[in-house]
Amino acid sequence: MLNADKNQTVEATFILIGFSDYPDLQVPLFLLFLTIYVITVMGNLGMIVVIKINPKLHTPMYFFLSHLSFVDLCFSTIVTPKLLENLLVEDRTISISACITQFFFAVTAVITETFMLAVMAYDRFAAICNPLLYTVAMSQKLCTLLVTGVYSWGIISSLIFTYSLLVLSFCGTNMINNFLCEYYVILTASCSDRHFSEIILAIFANFNELSTLIIIIMSYFLIFVTVMKMRSASGRRKTFSTCASHLTAITIFHGTLLFLYCVPTSKKLMAHVKVGSVFYAVVIPMLNPIIYSLRNKEMKETLRKLVGNTYFLVDICV
Length: 318
What we know:
The chain is mostly helical. The chain has a single domain, classed as Up-down Bundle (Rhopdopsin 7-helix transmembrane proteins). Helices cover 78% and strands 3% of the residues. A three-stranded mixed sheet has the order 2-1-3. Helix 6 (140-166) packs antiparallel against helix 8 (195-228).
């Protein structure tokens, strides 16, 4: 019986329906997502390079931000190329092994980003609530340990989720009404008992979301209390402005995840699910470098110098 299940899993295939319901929009959507992907790659690579070459940005906050950019770059690269391919070809089939592989790497990126945002909230708490002890509290060793822990937990959680799918059996051809392989759609396609996998999803998904939200809410509550004790109005505004970008990124990211995974499926239209998936998998990785660079003078100054030097080198070569 076990061999039969394994054979079924190997032979099973999925068809990513994606946006095939809108044939007239295939080319416009391809151009749109290609543009977003190019901006995402350039924005996140640019963020990493700028942080690397500017000594003023060699601080814990920008250290975490460079890793957030790296995770966003990986996440977009895991999802978008397959999305672009499916917008051009008629054969949208994907093997179960390829689908679960995409799922593993995508979930690793999502969980890593979730905890990276929580670590960044803790960093803001340490900087604002304990400024005199900030360099001691957020030492280079601690920052490295935090980032290593975030990546490790992202991989471990993804392995657990992936294992809970690998124990299932899949039969024949299954239609996936989305453009990427998500947990629910793979789970629904199974032709075996899904109780164990559903329990795993409930435990670890809720733990990851609740634990990170608790860290973020507690950090910003203590930041708010500290800021309100400041006598200077300009000091309060300046302090709040340092948190604005991070709060914006958190609100967009967690708001989208809560909509996708916490609102009952019966209350959501499939079109809304697709839009939500596009937003967190394709759009958010593009938005993060824009959000973090718009109000950052040092980041914009370094970018201007980098672009200016590039033009200078081009002129010399010409």
